[in-house]
Oxidoreductase (Niastella vici), 355 residues
Amino acid sequence: MLTLGILGLGEGRSTMSAALNSSKVKLKTICDLNEDLCKHRSKEFQFFNYTTKYEDMLNDPEIDSIAIYTPDKWHAEHIKQALLANKHVVCTKPLIDDLSKAKELLDLQNKTGKKLFVGQSSRFFEPAKRQRKDFEAGLLGELITVESHYHADHRWFLEKSWALESSFKWLYGGLSHPVDFIRWYLPDIEEVMGYGMISSNGKAAGLKNEDTMHFIFRATDGRIARVSGAYTGPIQPAQRDSGMSVIVRGTEGASQADYHELRYAITDKTGEEKIVQWGDKTIKYYFRFEGQSHHAGEYQNYLEYFADSITNNTTAYPDLKEGIGTIALLQAMDRSLKTGAPVKVSEILKTHGLS
Ligand SMILES: NC(=O)c1ccc[n+]([C@@H]2O[C@H](COP(=O)([O-])OP(=O)(O)OC[C@H]3O[C@@H](n4cnc5c(N)ncnc54)[C@H](O)[C@@H]3O)[C@@H](O)[C@H]2O)c1
């Protein structure tokens, strides 16, 4: 059983729903600097134990785990404070937005022995879980390549003040999902190159960093992969093209997991073709509020996975080390956008005293 405090109540709303619906999680306190938001969430979920001070949760001995949903640039600091207060941590993606504090966090985790789990929601979505299970069961043979994209009409997001700061990058906010998929199947990416641009919609809104990007990757064993993201324009109908997809191609089969429409398709090693679409009940489990732009179902899946890892003393993945590996890759991608040249992940890790 996790006894949880939630920090940040924008996206933390879905975590509240997840925690309150799970028998493996006890929600103790919610926290946001914005008291009106605390009151709003309290009323929405009839859960009235809120605070505007993070320290209140850190100093509460009953809380064993903190779940962090503050803006990206605060994650490193909020993780550090949680570890120093001897709490386990769930941190939403992107884990951190640069590697300057990565070594400090690793050292701190070693010292405290506390667990850190990256809330990489996309891995915990039904089609992605099914795809992974089939892959691990050998239905595709040996992996050849992985392709993933995350395209979304996130123009609404540009109204958040921090979306227009120079510290905000879709590279981290958006591409962390498909890049995590790539590393799930090909952990040892050695080199990446890509192009990016700010679209005219992004420019008009005052965005400071790229909203449209395409990248290719090479792993240490020579296998290749690709990822793309576009965030400030309309997307195709979900029936035709899911906003987020992963295609895994193997020596004996191929599969595709689609985030939208909860769709999964596979040609397995026997040649059998199957398309699975989950029903209304599963859709309601994942999308509990309006629309499909929130993640309560995935968060419940990952909170329960994390709770089990604490009960059984196993590691929940992505852990801190894997999460930092993904940030290193994102940072290599960022450098490639700036230089127009391929970048080795090892160079990035070396710069930050990591190996
Ligand atoms: N699929 C996913 O996993 C997913 C989806 C959406 C957002 N996110 C992540 O969730 C995080 C938050 O995004 P959001 O859209 O909710 O942003 P948001 O700006 O709407 O909410 C962040 C909240 O954090 C609060 N906050 C900031 N500093 C605080 C502090 N020191 N103490 C207490 N509260 C503090 C703010 O008041 C705000 O309400 C981002 O890192 C984002 O990438 C993840």
Residues 7-11, 31-34, 37, 54, 69-72, 74, 92-93, 119, 121, 160, 173, 295 surround nicotinamide-adenine-dinucleotide (CB under 6 Å).
